[in-house]
Automatic annotation (TrEMBL):
InterPro entries: Glycosyl_Trfase_fam3, Glycosyl_Trfase_fam3_N_dom, Glycosyl_Trfase_fam3_N_dom_sf, Nuc_phospho_transferase, PYNP-like_C_sf, PYNP_C, Pyrmidine_PPas_bac/euk, Pyrmidine_PPase_CS. It is an enzyme of class 2 (transferase). This is Pyrimidine-nucleoside phosphorylase. The keyword Methyltransferase does not apply. It catalyses: uridine + phosphate = alpha-D-ribose 1-phosphate + uracil; thymidine + phosphate = 2-deoxy-alpha-D-ribose 1-phosphate + thymine; 2'-deoxyuridine + phosphate = 2-deoxy-alpha-D-ribose 1-phosphate + uracil. Its EC number is 2.4.2.2. It comes from Anaerocolumna sedimenticola.
């Protein structure tokens, strides 16, 4: 290991065997933390080339369970988001894509941060289970083209161990390490086609567009480099996606979207991601045709009915799919009002996320219990005109002290100025194996 640290410190490329040796040795406890820390710092300073990044990804993917989806008929598609505020696209596009006969076999995580993950949000349906056996998972996808389960504890364990060390040694911000961390879990999850939603802006992991593009390109290169058709869509996170931030409140907004009444940005991002899932699955040869097919699933209610079928198949009560008023309601409703006239020129999206966490909608530690009924409904977004005293957002909570703290935080997230700012784009570009298309 000493020799390999020196080799990387000198800026030389490591072989696949050397990288596998490092990953396996550290995962088994044979290589100590201090040597792995030195290696990770050398990677941050000297970088990794394409072949090294692919080798690191595959070594981490193979460090635990590799989900075998070969019994599922057809081309299996999956979508992964790098994380944002109000990001409920999986709940919209999975039933749309599945209702067109394309298998969506998805492994999702629980949220650690401002809101729950897709798994937590789905538990807004009473009785819904994400811990179904693999056999049932495969049967469900074959029968109705859709299933979403929690990640197994042994999915890419090397990544979990390495990330924990990166987190405390200032070695998180390296594109190769970030890309291999995300892609190792997606590859272990077994899908044939991977569509990545790479967020950019104040509520994203990557704050600048150029960093987001670099990450998208690295992940697409890894996916296609190992034979998985991979696309990345770079989407805006300078404000929450849609208007709902929380858990059951986000599920309700996803249902609203499947009813053809959702916010424009959520629909646009879902249609774009879904279009590339259809392209990858060879359902159509063009993005334009894919969009038409996806929109038809809203018009004919097949996507909404698919969501209901999916919820029932995993033990849930699907009544709320057809009547969102049945979701749990918070006991306190509080308006966050503007202090002056003007236009919304900035929203610190991370702070809106933290407002949800303060209300109880997220986890501060992995053992925190999420309150599915709390959240924020955003009334004013970037570019909107506001009048003093007008509501910027409505907070939903169950604890008066938490609501008070959340209100202060939410208000500070908004900047209101006299002149209107330029509108933000919903989508900045698409990365395919052929390169970047900027919008």
């Amino acid at each position: 290991m000493y020799d390999l640290i020196v080799k990387k410190k000198m800026g030389k490329s490591l072989t696949e065997e050397e990288i596998t040796y490092i990953v396996n040795g550290f995962t088994k406890g044979e290589i100590p933390d201090y040597q792995m820390s030195a290696f990770l710092m050398a990677v941050c300073l000297k970088g990794m080339d394409k072949s090294e990044t692919i080798a690191l990804t595959m070594a981490m993917a193979h460090s635990g369970d590799m989900l075998d989806l070969s019994e599922i008929e057809g081309i299996k598609v999956d979508k992964h988001s790098t994380g944002g505020v109000g990001d409920k696209t999986s709940l919209v596009l999975s039933p749309m894509v599945a209702s067109l006969g394309i298998p969506v076999a998805k492994m999702s995580g629980r949220g650690l941060g401002h809101t729950g993950g897709t798994i937590d949000k789905l538990e807004s349906f009473p009785g819904f289970s994400t811990s179904i056996p693999t056999k049932q998972f495969i049967e469900n996808v074959n029968r109705m083209k859709m299933a979403i389960v929690g990640q197994t504890a042994n999915l890419a364990p090397a990544d979990k161990k390495i990330y924990a060390l990166r987190d405390v040694t200032a070695t998180v911000d390296n594109i190769s390490l970030i890309a291999s961390s995300i892609m190792s879990k997606k590859i272990a999850s077994g899908a044939d086609v991977i569509v990545l939603d790479v967020k950019t802006g104040s509520g994203a992991f990557m704050k600048t567009l150029e960093d987001s593009i670099s990450l998208a390109e690295a992940m697409v290169e890894i996916g296609n480099g190992i034979g998985r058709e991979t696309y990345a869509v770079i989407t805006d996170m300078n404000q929450p996606l849609g208007r709902a931030v929380g858990n059951s409140i986000e599920v309700a907004e996803a249902i609203q979207t499947l009813n053809g009444q959702g916010p424009e940005d959520l629909l646009e991002v879902s249609l774009t991601l879904g279009s590339y899932m259809l392209l990858g699955a060879k359902k159509t040869g063009s993005v334009e045709e894919a969009r038409k097919l996806l929109l038809q699933t809203i018009t004919d209610r097949s996507a909404l009915n698919k969501l209901g079928e999916f919820v029932r198949a995993q033990g849930g009560d699907d009544s709320a799919v057809y009547n969102s008023d049945l979701f749990p309601k918070a006991s306190i409703q509080e308006e966050v009002t503007a202090g002056k006239d003007g236009y919304v020129t900035k929203i610190v999206t991370d702070e809106i996320g933290m407002t949800s966490l303060v209300l109880g909608g997220g986890r501060e530690t992995k053992d925190s219990i999420i309150d599915l009924s709390v959240g924020i409904y955003i009334h004013k977004k970037l570019g909107d005109k506001v009048i003093a005293g007008e509501s910027l957002a409505t907070l939903y909570g169950n604890n008066a002290e938490k609501v008070k703290a959340a209100k202060e935080r939410c208000l500070k997230a908004y900047t209101i100025e006299e002149s209107k700012s330029e509108p933000t784009k919903y989508i900045y570009g698409i990365v395919t194996k052929d390169g970047l298309i900027r919008f």
